[in-house]
Amino acid sequence: MLYNFAYRDYRARYAQTLLGYGWAIIQPIMAAAVLFFLFRNLLKVETQGVAFLSFTFSGLLFWNYFAFVLSQSAASLISAQSMLQKIYFPRIILPLSKGLLGLVELSITLVLFLCIAFADAQVKPLGLLSFIPLIISVLAAAWGLGLWLSALSIRYRDLQQALPFLLQMLFFISPIAYSPALVQDRLPESVQALYYLNPISGILELFRAALFNLEYHPQAWLSILVAFLLFTSGWWYFHRVERKIADLI
Amino acid sequence: MTNAIEIKGLSKEYKLGKDSSFFALKEINLNLEKGKVLGLIGHNGAGKSTLLKILSRITYPSSGEIDVYGKLSSLLEVGTGFHPELSGRENIFLNGSILGMTKSEIKERFTEIVSFAGVEEFLDLPVKRYSSGMYVRLAFAVAAHLDAEVLLIDEVLAVGDAEFQKRCLQRMDSLSKEKERSIVFVSHNMSAIVKLCDEVAWLEKGQIIARGAPQEIIDQYLAKTAELNRDIPVQLRDDREGDGRAKIVDISIAKNKIGEFFTSSTALNLAVKFDLLNAKAKNFKLELHLFNSRGNYLSTFSHSANLSGLKQESWLCEVKDLTLMPGDFFFNAHLYLDGQRADFVGRAFYFKVIDEKSEANEIAISRQNPGIYLLNSWTTLTP
Question: Does this complex have an ipTM over 0.85?
Answer without folding.
Answer: no
